[in-house]
UniProtKB/TrEMBL annotation:
One of its GO terms (molecular function) is carbohydrate binding. Residues 159-236, 352-459 form the C-type lectin domain. The chain crosses the membrane at residues 33-52, 259-283. Gene3D superfamilies: Mannose-Binding Protein A, subunit A (3.10.100.10). The keyword Transmembrane helix applies. InterPro entries: C-type_lectin-like, C-type_lectin-like/link_sf, C-type_lectin/snaclec_domain, CD209-like_CTLD, CTDL_fold. Residues 296-344 form a coiled coil. It holds the Pfam family Lectin_C. This is C-type lectin domain-containing protein. Keywords: Coiled coil, Lectin, Membrane, Transmembrane, Transmembrane helix. The keyword Membrane applies.
Length: 486
């Protein structure tokens, strides 16, 4: 394609002329211009007036809405402060209760550790003996290894317990590997920086190593099948990207217009714009009034919601008060447990949690045994947990009284403090207080040594009598820790 160069000086003008013969210059009537100007003025005045009215209406609605929002915000802030205060108090009580619980758990753990100290020390001694035996074997093994002297064949070099041979024969990779394997070795596998430095400092020319991607292009593996972790490849050349530049040229052309035609067109456009603005402002005013009404409805709905939230907060505060009372009660109980766990039992008594126990060697009836217990500031034992049942079972060696009877009403078993029986560890259906048709009723409960822990309760028949003193039973005394003098 040939390049066309045209100079502006060589361009000739192209003129045209209308075939209509005009007798004089073309003019627009002045009345049209004046009318359009007045229309623009009226439209502008209407636009300004509507804008002022819109501004006043919006300001009034905004002031009312701001007042309502401020009132709602103040109420919400007060409710949040009250809820935050109650929550902080509750969190403090929870933290205190948690701390007390931890202390109780720690003291219980220490108590249990004291009870099992002999057993633990025995296990620790056995563990230490086993550890000593194992360490002795390890020392013997190390001494045996130290006596062995490892050397490399002649011509090989040892580095970090590994023998290396740098062959002077030149061959392919496969042939080189076969030569190495014929000597009981293989091409080198580099798995540390020290080994890489040693190899680099030793070689004088290109040397094969045991790395290849023969099986799959790009997947490098050592001769033992492992993937390389340390990589020492050379750096590839940098890529060069050359920028592509472009240039755009543009030209603008403008044509002349007549002054009168431009004025009329400008006034017409101004009138259209003013009319459009007036219509738009009217629509905006209508929408603003609708939005204000919608906002007012929303505020009323929010007021109802805030009122409901206030009621919910009131109920939550009441629930928090109940929780605080419960936490205070729990904290008091935990404090009492901590204090009782810190106290010790009298000499000869055994401790479980907050209670002290003693197993009497005197043989007596159930009533006499209880009197003996109460004379010592205690009472016959009340079993109220599986842990306590297992504990007292581990203490007895023969049949032993407990603080359970149905003397007042046959079949209605109660503890000596008047509480009804909940946990039951009867040995059989004949041991549950049902009585015997031949021997009579059964009134007093005891523990039978040698039975299963959860099935070792027995009750004595009336013909033998709870008051019989020649039956060889050992009464169990139980004393609360807070009754024990320090």
């Amino acid at each position: 394609m040939e390049e066309i160069n045209v100079s502006l000086e060589d361009v000739k003008p192209l003129c045209s002329r209308s075939s209509t013969i005009q007798e004089g210059p073309r003019r627009f009537p002045p009345a049209s211009v004046l009318g359009l100007g007045l229309l623009a003025v009226f439209l502008l005045a209407g636009l300004i007036g509507l804008a002022v009215h819109q501004h006043n209406s919006v300001d009034g609605a905004a002031a009312d809405l701001s007042a309502v929002k401020a009132n709602l915000t103040e109420r919400l802030h007060a409710s949040d402060q009250l809820l935050s205060s109650v929550t902080e108090e509750r969190d403090g009580l929870m933290a205190n209760l948690t701390e007390k619980t931890r202390e109780v758990d720690r003291l219980q753990s220490l108590s249990k550790q004291n009870q099992d100290s002999v057993h633990l020390l025995t296990e620790e001694r056995d563990g230490l003996m086993a550890n000593i035996t194992e360490k002795t074997r390890e020392v013997d093994r190390l001494q045996s290894l130290s006596k062995q002297k490892k050397t490399c064949p002649a011509g090989w070099r040892m580095v970090s317990c590994v023998c290396y041979l740098f062959s002077t024969e030149k061959a392919s990779w496969q042939q080189s590997r076969q030569n190495c394997r014929a000597k009981g070795a293989d091409l080198v596998i580099i798995d540390s920086n020290e080994e890489q430095k040693f190899m680099t400092s030793t070689i004088k020319e290109p040397t094969w190593i045991g790395l290849n991607d023969i099986d799959r292009e790009g997947t490098w593996k050592w001769v033992d099948g492992s993937l390389p972790t340390q990589k020492y490849w050379g750096q590839p050349p940098d890529n060069v990207v050359k920028p592509l530049k472009s240039r755009r040229s543009s030209a603008k052309q403008e044509g002349p217009r007549r002054f009168l035609r431009a004025s009329v067109l400008g006034l017409g456009l101004l009138s259209v714009f003013l009319l459009a603005g007036l219509i738009g402002l009217a629509v905006h005013h209508h929408n603003s009034v609708g939005d204000a009404a919608a906002d007012l409805s929303t505020v009323k709905a929010n007021l109802s919601s805030v009122t409901e939230e206030r009621d919910n907060l009131t109920r939550r505060l009441q629930a928090s008060d109940q929780l605080i009372n419960q936490l205070n009660a729990s904290l008091t109980e935990k404090t009492r447990e901590v204090e009782c766990l810190k106290k010790a039992c009298p000499e000869g008594w055994r401790k479980l949690n907050c209670s002290c126990y003693v197993l009497s060697t005197e043989k007596a009836s159930w009533e006499q045994s209880r009197q003996n217990c109460r004379a010592g500031g205690a009472d016959l034992v009340i079993v109220d947990s599986n842990e306590e049942q297992e504990f007292i079972t581990s203490m007895i060696k023969e049949q032993t009284w407990i603080g359970l009877n149905d003397i007042n009403q046959e079949g209605t078993w109660k503890w000596v403090d008047g509480t009804p029986l909940t946990l039951k560890y009867w040995g059989s259906t004949l041991d549950n207080g049902s009585g015997d048709p031949v021997l009579g009723e059964e009134d007093c409960a005891s523990l039978v040594a040698g039975r299963e822990t959860r099935k070792n309760w027995n009750d004595l028949r009336e013909i033998l009598s709870c008051r019989m003193e020649d039956v060889q039973f050992c009464p169990m005394k139980k004393q609360k820790n807070n009754d024990v003098p320090l």
